[in-house]
Write a structure and sequence with these properties.
Elements lengths: L1 E7 L4 E8 L5 E10 L6 E7 L5 E5 L4 H13 L12 E8 L10 E2 L2 H9 L8 H14 L5 E5 L9 H4 L5 H7 L8 H15 L7 E6 L5 E6 L2 E5 L20 H11 L3 H10 L2 H6 L5 H9 L3 H24 L5 E5 H6 L1 H8 L11 H6 L5 E2 L8 E4 L4 H18 L1
Parallel strand pairs: 1-6, 6-8, 9-12, 12-14
Antiparallel strand pairs: 1-2, 2-3, 3-4, 4-5, 7-8, 9-10, 10-11, 13-14
Helix pairs in contact: 1-3, 10-11, 11-13
Function: Catalyzes the formation of acetyl phosphate from acetate and ATP. Can also catalyze the reverse reaction.
GO cellular component, one term: cytoplasm
Keywords: ATP-binding, Cytoplasm, Kinase, Magnesium, Metal-binding, Nucleotide-binding, Transferase
């Protein structure tokens, strides 16, 4: 089954076309990115597997036109990979927020679309864009089954004492203010991959997954289920991130608003866009830049990296306590997969958990799957590449196939 995976942002569109023969037998045919949708000049970057990328600049006013352009490139005689749009048998969409409506991936029908729209208040920057992609595809490829895969659904297994905030209960009842968590597809994917590498059943292990990148979150997985995660009502809570502050005393937020005379909306922008690595270092939101600057002696870059390592350690320690131990710790995401020094700094403080860190293995590879502990270690640590698009394609294939059989 050929599955087109779409990830629509407010002004962007990422896509992959995968030929799914089975869950574990698949081929990535092409992938690409459309940027600056709705601006004066947009950029489409398309790459057929095995050949150089193709880049074109043109005005792309909306997501429907963007998807039309993607289909055109997929059909192109030179760098295309299909001869007819009828070869696309299903479309999978990454949807940021499923609220309490969706505990798993779902076939997109009128009711599902309505409930995705109902979650727009919870994810105003993402869900409206995700809906645009769903509706545009329904017009362009009518009758082709569409599936929504939610960042939040993996975390729907959290117990109420983990997901509720100690606010007046009426705010949960009226507005559904609670912890939801994000990066669910990534946490699920690497946990399953790590267990497969060990030859273990996910239900038998206590796992902590660390998705570390421009956005970061850490999840505790017990009996195969997410029981807690660091991101909360929004992706702002938790660790320090590229431009997001992570945990901050709410009293500090109102204090700054009063002192600076700024609106809640502007404060929200500061917390989401001007804080984190960028705000603390004053240099960059990219961990690679900070690592280079720290190596050159920049003290605030060093401070920012120490803050990240400290935050990671606090969550690992807390989740180990919550689960009464940990069997497997996984690093993934851009930082987790590639930043050897960050992995080393964190793991050097985990002797108490039975982590016997393998320095040679850590320094040997970057961006590949690797076991970072010595044989026989009580707690195994891995760095694993994530593949959220594959999770979406797998769920899409499964759900579309089930619908076809009905």
């Amino acid at each position: 089954m050929k599955v087109l995976v779409l990830n629509c942002g407010s002004s962007s569109l990422k896509y992959q076309l995968l030929d799914m023969k089975s869950e574990d037998d698949y081929e990535l045919k092409a992938k690409g990115l459309v940027e600056r949708i709705g601006m004066d000049m947009s950029v489409l970057t398309h790459r057929k597997t095995g050949i150089d990328k193709f880049v074109v600049e043109m005005p792309i006013p909306d997501h429907k036109v963007a998807i039309s352009c993607v289909l055109k490139e997929l059909l192109d005689g030179g760098h295309g990979v299909i001869s007819s749009v009828e070869e696309i048998e299903a479309v999978g969409h990454r949807v940021a927020h499923g609220g309490e409506y969706f505990t798993q991936s779902t076939f997109v029908d009128a009711e599902a679309e309505k409930n995705i729209e109902a979650c727009c208040d919870l994810a105003p920057l993402h869900n409206p864009a995700n809906l645009l992609g769903i509706r545009a595809m329904a017009e362009l490829l009518p009758g082709v089954p569409q599936v929504a895969v939610f960042d939040t659904s993996f975390h729907s297994t959290m117990p109420d004492y983990a997901y509720l905030y100690a606010l007046p209960y009426e705010f949960y009842q009226k507005y559904k203010v609670r912890r939801y968590g994000f990066h669910g597809t990534s946490h699920k994917y690497v946990a399953e991959k790590g267990c497969k590498i060990l030859g273990k059943d996910m239900k038998d292990l206590k796992i902590i997954t660390c998705h570390l990148g421009n956005g970061s979150s850490i999840t505790a997985i017990q009996n195969g289920k997410s029981i807690d995660t660091s991101m909360g009502f929004t992706p702002l809570e938790g660790l320090i991130m590229g431009t997001r502050s992570g945990n901050v005393d709410p009293g500090a937020v109102s204090f700054i608003e009063e002192k600076e005379g700024i609106s809640p909306a502007k404060m929200n922008t500061i917390l989401n866009k001007k804080s984190g690595f960028l705000g603390l270092s004053g240099l960059s939101s990219d961990c690679r830049d900070l690592t280079d600057a720290a190596d050159a002696g920049n003290e605030r870059a060093k401070l920012t990296l120490k803050k990240l390592a400290y935050d990671i350690l606090k969550y690992i320690g807390a989740y180990s306590a919550v689960m009464d131990g940990v069997d497997l710790i996984i690093f993934t995401g851009g930082i987790g997969e590639n930043n050897r020094s960050m992995r080393r700094i964190v793991c050097e403080h985990l002797d108490f958990l039975g982590v016997e860190f393998d320095y040679e293995a850590n320094d040997s590879v970057s961006g590949e799957d690797v076991i970072l502990t010595k044989p026989g270690a009580r707690t195994v640590v891995m760095a694993l590449t994530t593949n959220e698009e594959l999770v979406i394609a797998r769920d899409t294939m499964r759900i579309a196939s089930e619908r076809k059989r009905k």
